[in-house]
Amino acid sequence: MGRAEERRARQRGHRAASKRRRSEPAAAGKPAKSLLRRMFTWKKILGTVFGVCLLAILGFVGLYMYVDIPEGNAAARQQSNVYKFSDGTLLARNGKVNREIVDLSKVPRKVQLTFVAAENKSFYSDSGVDFKGTARGLLNTLRGRGKQGGSTITQQYVKNYYLNQDQTVTRKLKELVISLKVDREKSKDEILAGYINTSYYGRSAYGIQAAAQAYFGVDAEDLSVEQGAYLAALLQAPSQYDWAVATDTGKRLVTQRWNYVLDNMVEEGWLAKDRRTAMRFPKIKEPKRAPGLDGQKGYLVDLANQQLEQQLMAQEGLTQSQAENAVMEKGWTITLNIDRKKQAALERAVRSELTSKLDKTKRKVDGDIQPGAVSVDPKTGKIVALYGGQNYYEHYYSNATRRDYQPASTFKPVILAAALEREATTQDGKPITANTLYDGGNRRPVVDHGRPVGFAPPNEDEADYDEITVQEAMNKSVNSVFAQMGVDVGMDNVMSTASSLGMDTKGMPAVPAQTLGSMGASPLEMAGIYATFANHGHKVTPTIIKSAEQKGRSVDMPDPVGGTVLSRTAADTVTSVLTGVVDDGTAKTSVAANPLRDGQQVAGKTGTSDENKSAWFTGYTPDLVTSVGLFGEDPKTHGHVSMEGATGLLPGRGRINGGGYPAEIWAAYTFGVTDRSAFDLDTTQGAAVAPPPPPTSSAPPTPSTTPSQTPSETPSETPSRTPSQTPSETPSQTPSRTPSQTPSGTPTTGLPTEPTSEESPDPDDDGGGFHFRP
């Protein structure tokens, strides 16, 4: 055999042996590699990572070469928003752009630096892009979270001037590329000038010149460092931080932001520390509103914008500032739930029952009265009418949505709802129901398992009651009863129920004083809470928007009616109890005896706050809930002031109670737009439930009144300062209790002889005038 043949034979043997090894089981101690391990070796993993990175780099290079800096179109994108009534008729058109470009040289250097200190301290040294923030933003977008994690002044300028606020991966990648190119092709001063001239500052102001005029009444070149720091802080959340309309939280946040800006300037060496220490928060000018929003239009448009912005923030992950910029003058067609006829009726009711009687030239206090109201369909959650103030141009702040006044005794039904829902008991273990007896003594110390809690509220006019049922206590708004009930239920539980019903309880302490409604709330909030009662415990979040569309795009608004937050029995029992407030309590004169009522069933509650600074009536029929509030506000300082003496038509001190003008406005409006209907209640308690038939007897019935009933009735209908009331009133009160127990809601027999609220002092006082502040 030759050498060549031997070599070929050896090769054949090697190949055969290799095949045998592959086909034989692995030798002991040397397991064969699995398919997964053979596929994912370190070499292959590193090669894959390298390949992906190379593709990403090549892709970015391609994107960088492909994407050019587009023409600036910030001004061109401004378009009118159109607002319509629910029937499609035009309500308002708002879209006049308030913008004036100014050269950066016209803006003081230290004012320029306030924006750098607020948004991007590394602005003068960076490449125009925050890669970590952009990567975080892209990741959030891919996850559906939306909110960008951070961006430079250059990126924000590019977004404002060249692109839009869309939260998409494509837009973010374009923003990244264009920002890098802009930073290379433009100077930092050009970029900063573009940024401060295209940003939205609220009050329909685009750019620093318009903002300087809107908030301080000066040109941009005359801005102080303090004023510049405020405008720089404002960009984070323009409407929320606008001092004229900001809540206490908004004012606290913008003050913190203002301090942050100035402290950053000191840190960067742009501001002397001693000068910084001497600086004070600037005074903000009252706003002037855009034309075409007179009367109630501006209030309706503002609430629609706010609710659309909130939905964009929730749905697309926009920040507050981004959402405002995406809504204001961006070509939206927004149809509201506002019913034209109901809106007109509400405006007429406020005018006929209140504002036509105000004359600030005769009485200074008449200029302090601010009415607000919200009307909601409880079955759908639609806001069908809203009253924000006498005129949007004269009073910028909407009285329908403001939360800085106490709801007073209109909060008491929430306490009862918490007790019923949790099947709470009194201190001695008795279930809390409409018929549970409480000690209604004036200034009775509230106790927690025998120990005083340091709270002993007086009843209205120091009225003293003996044992009194929960139903009677609600009718007469007895403070001492509900203060004790709140502790019996547990104030944490009460505030939890308030939150689940729709009240913003964040930061509210769970203390007994809250039982008297000492927190802040708006007519919008109270209408939502009572609408939840009316809707048998299904959560109602009132909404003003029917639809919102923009260039073929529509935004899905959340369903105003949510799940059950209160059992039907608990909600219906609250409604049943509140019918007694109308038929036998503090709303009897203005609502139950109103000639327009025509047998309509009504539930509701009055409220009058400490020092008569606010007065409320929140009430409902089966198909309509309306909350009316009157607020005493100094027109210059915006401080809370007493409303006593307003209109000059009320006797005595002229105290305005919830059962007076608020209830009269409510009745004039509601009875004019609703048809008679009956509550469908699943409860065995409360004034709307017919009492059991009396036991049969051969002797004729003899009407009588026990001694304990006589004094308990008198103070609720006639304050203690009118002792001249004759005993003849007592018999008329006794039979009036029977009709209030019937489902018909028919006014009581003795009502035609009742004096009106303008003929006797405080006929409908509700006992909500005292508030303890810990």
Automatic annotation (TrEMBL):
- Domain Penicillin-binding protein transpeptidase as annotated: residue spans: 373-623
- Which Pfam family, an example, fits this chain? Transgly
KW Transmembrane helix (keyword) present = yes
Give the Pro residues compositional bias ranges.
690-704
Q: Which keywords describe this protein according to UniProt?
A: Carboxypeptidase, Glycosyltransferase, Hydrolase, Membrane, Multifunctional enzyme, Protease, Transferase, Transmembrane, Transmembrane helix
Q: Which residues cross the membrane?
A: 45-67
Segments of skewed composition (Basic residues): 9-22
Return the Acidic residues bias intervals: 756-767
**Biased composition, Basic and acidic residues: where in the chain?**
441-451
Q: Which reaction does it catalyse?
A: Preferential cleavage: (Ac)2-L-Lys-D-Ala-|-D-Ala. Also transpeptidation of peptidyl-alanyl moieties that are N-acyl substituents of D-alanine; [GlcNAc-(1->4)-Mur2Ac(oyl-L-Ala-gamma-D-Glu-L-Lys-D-Ala-D-Ala)](n)-di-trans,octa-cis-undecaprenyl diphosphate + beta-D-GlcNAc-(1->4)-Mur2Ac(oyl-L-Ala-gamma-D-Glu-L-Lys-D-Ala-D-Ala)-di-trans,octa-cis-undecaprenyl diphosphate = [GlcNAc-(1->4)-Mur2Ac(oyl-L-Ala-gamma-D-Glu-L-Lys-D-Ala-D-Ala)](n+1)-di-trans,octa-cis-undecaprenyl diphosphate + di-trans,octa-cis-undecaprenyl diphosphate + H(+)
Looking at the record, which segments are called Disordered?
A: 1-30, 431-461, 685-774
State the protein's name. Answer: Transglycosylase domain-containing protein
Ranges of compositional bias, category Low complexity: 705-755
Q: Which residues form the Glycosyl transferase family domain?
A: 89-265
Q: Does the keyword Membrane apply?
A: yes
